[in-house]
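Need tokens for this chain, all 356 residues.
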Amino acid sequence: MDRKKEKRRRQRILYESIRTAAATLLLLGVSLLSFAWFHHGRSLERKSDGIATVTPTPLAMASIMDLETVFTSAPADTAPAGMPLSTPAPTAVFVPWVEKFAEQFTADIVSQKQGYSSPDLCIRISKVQYGKAKTAMYYLADIYLTDIRQFETVLAKDKYGSLRESVKSMAQRHDALLAITGDYYGNQKTGVVIRNGIVHRQEKSACDVCVLYYDGTMRTFSPDAFSLEQAIADGAYQTWCFGPMLLDEQGRPIPDEKLNTSKNIRRANPRSGIGYYEPGHYCFVVVDGRTDDASGMTLEEFSKLFAELGCKAAYNMDGGRSAEIYYGGNILNDPYKGGRSVSDCLIIRETLGKEP
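Here are the structure tokens for all 356 residues:
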């Protein structure tokens, strides 16, 4: 408990310091960033292992220090009768994820078959029956973070390109506690690829796009609505381009005929996907299928599942034989034909920024 109290004390000191500075600098910083973006080009730095890196905005940097940004309106100005009031300016209020989700964390590390918790991270694993067959299962991982960098993407062989590696191998090399299949970007020649803040590919495709930002928010876009320039300006941390998006802007399931993908993808298959509740709170879902007892889920069923879970946004990752979920050193589900090697996976880990 002493360790936890000391951690909280240090975080409160950090919180107060940043809050004091942020209120003064927030609007000025955003204005300067907007000016720099439109007059001097993208907020990027050249990097040898990618096209460029995304520079987080001041608001996104708050997330990197365990902070979530919530906006409230400042009191409106007074004005003479008949004169319009000025628009209230937003005031930044910073809520550390470690405090917001405090009840999810534990003072000591607790690692069990059903999940993992520590002062900085919480993962809960559920195995749920679906359909009529008792062996038809999907796996749900409920995830709470204190730092967005605990959520990473791993590339096969740690290199960008058409390389392949098993989810288990990638996860173990990066000390992952949890992992699922990614979007298999290496199997496509187009589709924007930003991984861990590095821009690897800029060419758009006809697929919906999912963006996870440095501030912890996650959004999905249709191909026409997505802008790489805007995503970079807003602090994109990860992008995935497989899809489709599974929930509309109100968090409602999307009917089969409106899902942006082929009929072959929409029919019952093994699935993997990611759900978003709020910054710092996510879920991974993997569905078994293509067996005598479990055909898998249609995309419409998968969409409804994320809506029932209460997600605000959700996105379909590569499924079929690729669909795998890793936890506790092993693959939990029963992949079709034993699974296959892929070009990338999503991981959750305790340590931050550790090189393989």
